[in-house]
Design brief:
Its cofactor is Zn(2+). Its EC number is 1.1.1.2. Keywords: Metal-binding, Oxidoreductase, Zinc. It catalyses: a primary alcohol + NADP(+) = an aldehyde + NADPH + H(+). By secondary structure, the chain is an alpha/beta fold. The longest helix has 14 residues.
């Protein structure tokens, strides 16, 4: 076992404290990664504060990891010490079921092993990227292209694939009108990716306070959802709406913005169920669906796509002792647009 520095929360309201955790020895198929950067995802906050239930304390979050390979097992062929690599939302799966063999490990029928907070055979749960190093099976390690800034690439391991996957699934591209609902940590990456895919992109945000940013990121139109005229002027306009908002919304109001056969896909996870009349879908054959990240092959595809098109997250780099304050700022929507922990410089 190797002991590494880490941050952990021990209860719903404890905040984070410095500690040390153990990482397993490097096995034949393993890659050991010295972590440089770890992005803060809103999911981290939900888990650390047990807002979804099921948190296994003590918990070390972090599934937006970028670092450098420090050692590899004897059977590893795809990576070598010194490589810049990433780890996303999960670190293991059965590898045998129909979804794993199809490169959709996130749907593993035996249950995917999340990068953190998944109980292991020995009883302890997995620990994530708010730590100095991690050991991961080669199958779940991503190559980070040299064209990407490592700190700004970290959020792509969650925010990037979370938005790229549904765009690919529902055909965002030339000739398609795409609306991104919400312009936060997920939404700003979604705007960049949809624009790079060639879609006509509109931002739907509560106010116009981020309009200048949205247009700079590739949107051609920007509307405030607090203005009733937005729903009148854009009725029946969009082929696809990607909802990145975790707040409870009047979902039928947004369905009215879709064309015939239009799709509203949610990647934000509100706490309350949607209320939708069947006629709101049937009348124009609309689709209401959801999406959660993508498999390892598609995540690598996303990273390569982002490198080719210059897509990176807009970040605020913080130290390990700033995480509690960063969490509060995320909840207050006081960040443009993603916090990333400078692990290598501030956690050792």
């Amino acid at each position: 076992m190797t002991t590494v520095p880490a941050l952990e929360a021990v209860s719903t309201d404890s905040g984070f404290r410095r500690t040390t955790i153990e990482r397993r020895p490097v096995g034949p198929g393993d890659v050991e990664i010295e972590i440089d950067f770890a992005g803060i995802c809103h999911s981290d906050i939900h888990v650390a504060r047990d807002e979804w239930g099921g948190t296994h304390y003590p918990v070390t979050p972090g599934h937006e990891i970028v670092g450098r390979v420090s050692a590899v097992g004897e059977a590893v062929t795809g990576f070598a010490p010194g490589d810049t690599v990433g780890v996303g939302c999960f670190v293991d799966s059965c590898g045998r079921c129909e979804y794993c063999t199809d490169g959709q490990e996130q749907f593993c029928t035996e249950g995917v092993t999340a990068t953190y907070n998944t109980p292991q055979a020995g009883g302890a749960a997995t620990r994530g990227g708010y730590s100095g190093a991690i050991v991961v099976d080669e199958r779940f390690v991503l190559r980070v292209p040299e064209a990407l800034d490592p700190a700004r690439a970290a959020p792509l391991l969650c925010a990037g694939i979370t938005t790229y996957a549904p765009f690919k699934r529902w055909g965002a591209g030339p000739g398609r009108r795409v609306a991104v609902l919400g312009m936060g940590g997920l939404g700003h990456v979604a705007v960049k990716i949809a624009a790079a895919l060639g879609a006509e992109v509109t931002v739907l945000s509560q106010s116009l306070s981020k309009q200048e940013d949205g247009l700079a990121f590739g949107a051609t139109d920007y509307w405030a959802t607090s203005d009733p005229e937005t729903f009148q002027r854009n009725k029946g306009r969009f082929d696809l709406i990607l909802n990145t908002v975790s707040a409870d919304l009047p979902i039928e109001q947004y369905l009215s913005l879709l064309r015939v056969d239009g799709v509203l896909c949610s990647v934000g996870l509100p706490t309350e169920p949607y209320s939708v009349r069947a006629m709101a879908l049937a009348a124009r054959q609309r689709v209401l669906t959801g999406s959660m990240v993508g498999g390892i092959p598609q995540t690598q595809e996303m990273l390569d796509f982002c490198a080719e098109h210059g897509v990176e997250a807009e970040i605020e780099l913080i130290g390990a002792d700033d995480v509690d304050a960063a969490y509060d700022r995320v909840v207050a929507s006081d960040v443009r647009y993603r916090f990333v922990i400078d692990v290598a410089r501030t956690l050792a």
